[in-house]
Please model this.
Amino acid sequence: EVQLVESGGGLVQPGGSLRLSCAASGFTFTAHWMTWVRQAPGKGLEWVANIKQDGSRTHYVDSVKGRFTISRDNAKNSLYLQMNSLRAEDTAVYYCASNTDYRFDYWGQGTLVTVSS
Amino acid sequence: QSALTQPASVSGSPGQSITISCTGTNSDVGGYNYVSWYQQHPGKAPKLMIYDVSSRPSGVSNRFSGSKSGNTASLTISGLQAEDEADYYCTSYTRSSTWAFGGGTKVTVL
Model:
């Protein structure tokens, strides 16, 4: 059974940092691009970033460029999102998702990040 | 990186068919056959319903179908059921090698 389990969310002050993790199991992690998608409270989904199988390529939504870094550890079947200089508008549930070709086929349950003083 | 345009809400009676539109540009929806659709029930993670415009993953009901014409993709739900009440999101790969999501459509079963 495919499982994606996010962790690392919580309350952080504006300007602070947080590192999210996503533990993957039940599929060949190294065969898939991986993605972070977020959802602000009561709002729609927003694609945040993705990373190639070997970590050699990454892409980001403009609003997080220079502040967020996506990475992965294939030996640990884990995906990460380092979030720096956090803003109130980064408050959201963050989901990790696996990519097969051009679709997000499996999703975790999400972890809530709240940026507030 | 602009969002795709979806209607905020669509409703229908049980057994009816409804269609949700998703409008983009020739830099995303119109430029690629990489439109997918996701269903999200309250408090739950999104679930893949349609990919590559019109393909259905294993296990998804054949009451769900997708299509595309120009810069607009569509999701049709036929034989509407109470369990179909949820939010639906389209997404498309873009020329910038990123992904754009639609704003979401709330489907209500009357």
